[in-house]
Amino acid sequence: MRQTAIPPAAAPSVRVSASTRAGEALERLQAKRGPVVFVQSAQCAGCGEPGCFRVADFHPAVTDVMVGEVFGCQLWLDVRMLQVWPGHHVVLDIERGYSAAPSLSAGDGQHFVVRFVDESAQD
Fold first, then answer.
1. DSSP state of 107
2. In this predicted structure, what is the pLDDT of residue 1?
3. Average confidence (pLDDT) over 23-43
4. Which residues of 74-113 are buried (b: 16+ CB within 10 A; e: fewer)?
5. DSSP string spanning 19-70?
6. Which of 1, 9, 67, 123 is in the most buried spot, having the most CB atoms within 10 Å?
7. What is 8-121's CATH number?
């Protein structure tokens, strides 16, 4: 893999989690495809659809930084997203329908999504 723009240790702290449904979909997907990784690029930020790739097929961009893991899968974000959504909790989930972006499916007729939850508004 190429070097990231910001070393993971220097990246802003981000809390990441996944829904139970996403975890179940990940178990099924990894049983078929092997280990996977997620990346949310700045270009797809509005759609909230991360790319899901086999680890062997993933090559991070120089602006990507690994921010955490969910169910043993790395989650990478474009560093510019961390500047736009500081203090947000990143939640991996699934929705019905197919992804508009190139990505492994979450299951028959489902795709993975990323939600940014503003934790500062939850006092």
1. B
2. 44
3. 91
4. bbbbbbebbeebeebebbbbbbeeebebebbbbeeebbbb
5. -HHHHHHHHHHHHHH--EEEEE-GGGTTTT--EEEEGGG----TTEEEEEEE
6. 67
7. 2.60.300
pTM of the model: 0.82
Residue 16: its H or E element: strand 15-18
Helix, strand or coil, per DSSP, at residue 103 = coil
**Residue that the structure tokens 């939640």 belong to:** 91
Q: Tell me phi and psi for residue 12, to 5 degrees.
A: -60, 145
Do 33 and 14 form a contact (C-beta atoms < 8 A)?
no
Domain boundaries along the sequence of the chain: 8-121
